Amino acid sequence: SLLEKTSNWDKDERYMATNDLCALLSNPPPTLKIDDYMEQKICTAILKQLDDQSNDVQSVAVKCLAIIIKKVKIAQIGEICKKLSSLILDGKDALRDIYSIGLKTLIADVPDSMGPSVIEMLSTRLLGGILNTASSEEVKRECLDITADLLRRFGHLANEQRQGEILSAVIKQLQHDKPVIRKKAAHCLGSLAVVSSDALLHSMVHTLLGQIESSSATSASTRTLIQTIGTVSRTVGFRLGKHLPRIVPLFLQHCGSPSSSQDESQYNDASNELRESCFPGLESFVARCPREVAPFLQSIVQVAVGFVAYDPNFAGDEDEVDGDEKEDEGEEMEVEEQEDDEAEDEEEYGGGSDDDDTSWKVRKAAVKVLAAVVNSACTSSLDGDHLLRGLLYQPWCVDAVIARMSREREENVRLDVLQCFTSLVQATGRLATTAATSTSISSDKSSGEDLRTLLARKVGRIMAACFALLAGPSVKTKSAVLLLLRAVIATLHGGLERYLVKLLAQVDRCLVDGSQALKLDALLLLRDCVELHPPASVQGPLLTSSRLLPRLVGAVRDDWYKVIAEALRVLAAVVGAVRPSPDSCYFADIASGDCQAFVSCVYDAIYSRLDALDIDREIKDCAISGVGKLVSHFGDCPALTPQLPGLFALLQRRLENETTRSAAMRAVAAIASSTHPPSPLSTSRNLKQLALQALDALLLAPSTCLSASVCAVVAQEAAGLLTDGDLHLAQLTLSLLHSLLLKAEATHQQAVAAEPVRGHVYPRMLQLARSPLLSGQALQAKLRLFQSLTRTLTASGAAQQNFFNEVIADLYGSSPSASVSKHGLSNLSKCIAAVCLCDCIAAPLREQFLLRLVADVEANSESTQQLALLSLGEVGQHSPLLWRVVRAGSGQDLQELLLQCFLSAKLSDDVKQAAAYCLGHVAAGSMDTFLPAILQALPHGKQPQQKEALSQQEQQQQYLLLAALRDAISVHAACERDFHLHAPAVLPVLLEQCEEGAGEAAEESVKNIVAECLGLLTSMPGMAADVIPTLLALTQPAAGQRGGGKIVANTLKVALARPQSPAAEPLAAVMGQFLPLLENSDLEVKRAALLMVNTAIHHNPSVVAAFLSRPITPVLLETLRVKMERVVDLGPFKHKVDDNLPLRKVALTCVESVLDSPLLQIDAEAVMAVMPTALADKEDIKLQAHQVLVKLAQYGPAAVAAGLDSLIDPLDRTAMKKLPTQTPPAGSNADNNAMQSHTNAPEHERALELVRSAVKVIATLNRITADAGAAGISVRWQEFVKKVKLSELTASHFQLAVEADRKTLIDSSAY
């Protein structure tokens, strides 16, 4: 009935029927079934309504179309497209906007699958409307606008012929006499450029440039053409780079020169509009094509700097700025002169500009070009240090920008100038830090002055300009100036000592300003001044001012929580500056009246917020932190002494509160760790850490006194934390208990502390000692606690023997449990050695136990044998005379006993490895006795035929002897013992183990262990010069060693695994001779070389820094592109294997390591070029590529933003991939169901993890590129993100990814 009513004679009936039909289709009832016939009837009725005589009926019909297109098939979509396009071309002028909205809605909402048909149908009709000379201005405007939308949505689906037709039609409209048509045509060409091929893009640019060159310099069409080039640049990014040699000179030519003051024809609105069009294009070239625009940067900067000062209507005194730096006195006079001219500056601000003056738009555009150049110094592949030193810090550039800060009349331009210079200062700090760090780890010394020195020379001019601006009335300008000064202080780590008095006076004026934002900025600057300048330079200006401290106290009583919190932070910083150490205080006497007045004033201000309950959490935390700082620095001040009981009671209440507990714990720790502390004083892991650290500091404080109750509580509570579930907490707990015993020993209260530790803690120590997870700092803390407990409990001879026997019985026992793992046995042996080697143990007790260990080497229990051998090794590395003790006590030769273990057929491999460990560590303690025996037992001096005839037993012995030798070298390397005397005997024997002809004896394990030995030798101080020639010889094809390249790569990996390895400097000098291994045809050698490079990047980046751009990066990127697939016939089925897959994983890891390193730089655009290939690789590579892509976006957002479109297809295939079902199909029997569910579950989880990772990358890339202000993010990417947000498959994952990313950002900036 609704369809019938749409043809009713009454227009109101037609309107209501169409409106009801629209509502019905929006929310169809379950009983409504629409078949093909009904679809056709509905579409016919609605399309008929578009020709209705009533405008209201036509309007509601267009709205209904937006709903219909989502529910009908392609045939009906085609009819709708034809009808709407016809109405736009020939319909009523009054309703053309409605028709346009309907067609735009269709383009935006039509399914992707209908894209090819839609663009084919619409483009033909729209081009007709564009090219038809009889078409009105409104028709052309709507056709161009809709064509731009069509290209953004489906332009990539159009063939090149159709794209060429669109280009030919649209580019003609750039010569139209109506500005709106030219503007629409420019936007349409920008949308077309995104999806066009390189050939079509070249044709477009070539045509545009030809028209620019042939047109008049001041014509309106020239401005449009230049704007079009800028639009294309912002949309296609680096693809325009190869055209810049022609584009940039043309743009610079049309900008003209501001110095041509004689040519008054250049000072008109037409010329200004042309320049206003050129500069955004230049800005886009710098931002999107930094590498290609580099040859033109100096010319661009010169023109931009010239037009920054372009103000033909300003009749002020423009003195020429010379490049010579003024002397200190001159700078001070300049500051004074600026301050004396405050009234003139204020008048200048208030004078404004003429309404007809458009030159400010040119200056604003020029400043943005300079800002883009500054930004490219840190975010692109350009040499930022050279760019700043050789261009931006040249006097003609930097002096002109500084002068413009105070002379600019238009506030929005002035703010841009200040922001640009602030960015330059911040870039100076980042690049100077990177250069200093790189120089400190490399042997090369940087040439020229440090960037900070160049900035420091301009401080006088900067301060003069800033003081002049701070004297003006503009709040926004003052805030920008304060931000600039903060950047200067942060970059120079102070640097404003001479100006602090005047600067703090200006800060004081800002604190009484009515603007809360300005007040907050002033407090932030004040805190930076106090914290980053030497205390001696800020004490006087802070305390001699009669107004500044009361202003801070008043700010603490402010209404805005941010001002209150920052004022509290400033007060805490002032406290630290006034008395940075007990011996350095501004006040001569801590008990003087001035000091007590200062402390009382600060205390009253902080306590007023500390005692309040109904305040913001940030204020609470700042107040607690501030009072902790005050008490830790002035705890011995008489003015504070009466307040301490109440203060500590209040801190205790804050400790009991969940929200303030962390801040209170930090305050207590600060007070306890102070060198002059006052005399009295949950379940979150973070709070436990803070509590343990605070208690440790309290125990080490000189004024702390132990009592039996305190020791009992500490021991009882600490025992519960001694588990291997959280080794960091365990390590802090062990350190706390060690401090407790040290405090007891220092105060002669061993009995008070030792018994609670022995009763509560000792059983948990034994349990933890058997854990296979115990390692690193936790293990070292455990060993220290065992030794301190042994010293505390062995005061008398009888007690010494009793406790030693008890510990040995608990740790060693008669038969260790076979359930203890190998690593657990190793930890037990270290604990046994720590107790045995304690200096308080009598020699007879120690020797008696060592003989027991020797006897247990031949015991029946395998675990007993292993523990005995490991314990002997741990003791032997610290006891050079162990072998004599064994020989004197048992008559056995320890060396022969251990070598016999290698040959015994009865012993297991684990026991033999323990024997090798023992031999190596004992040899480390007695090299002269054991090293010759190890070398003699290794097969050497044999002919190749003899080496090939080695038995399996001899091969195993060879491996065990090499393992022992490795352990001996490892102990020397860890303890930094001298190995020069032993190297001549060791090196030849190591190399002989992998000579050509060794046959199967030279197993992979033997080669790896030889590489470990050589790597450890190389990493020792002074040893690299002895080993490097040998390694270079191994890389030669005729060296005679099998697998020499892989041995060398593994050797270098081990040598560079230590941060700041002694081998780094000598290896850096010859690394270029080892890098050809990266291009070795043997995949195993190449993989080993890549792993070596990755290790160097992680731990010693200076070794490979000079070779990163070439040859390392090209090899990495080429490796990521190469696949080596082959089919392996496994009989019943065939399996495809990619031999290069492991190499691609390592290459991607290397790229990620470079992005993680703050000292290395990589070509972000080159890496971005291979990311689509990596994103389409195997699942493991995809997951790794997702992580790399996020880091690459943080490293080079401009490069990533330029290539976002290339990522859409691989990310779309991954994110939109249909997950395998977890539920088996209906009708299967129960057993098959269970089996299939079990089989599908891991596959489903892997696929889900991949989807989540891809969606997380999309969300993070979207946020990073937006935050970085990357110009010209493509519309196609924005549509793709919108699709991911709305898709049922990915919407929930996207929301979770956004929330997780936001939480990560908040957590990273919390403190």
Structure report:
Helices cover 71% and strands 1% of the residues. With 1311 residues, the protein is mostly helical. Helix 8 packs parallel to helix 10, helix 24 runs antiparallel to helix 25 and helix 32 packs parallel to helix 34. About 5% of the residues have low confidence.
In a few lines, what is going on in this structure?
The chain is mostly helical and 1311 residues long. A two-stranded antiparallel sheet has the order 1-2.
The proportion of strand residues reads under 5%
Count of helices? 64
Q: Which class do the helix and strand fractions yield?
A: mainly alpha
Shape: globular
Oligomer: single chain
Mean of residue pLDDT values:
81
Low-confidence stretches: 317-354, 440-446, 996-1002, 1225-1239
Question: Strands across the major sheet, in which order?
Answer: 1-2
Gyration radius (Cα, Å) is 39 Å
Distance from N terminus to C terminus (CA atoms, Å) equals 68 Å
- Tell me roughly what share of residues is in helical segments: over 70%
Q: Sheet with the most strands?
A: 2 strands, antiparallel
Q: How many E-type strands?
A: 2
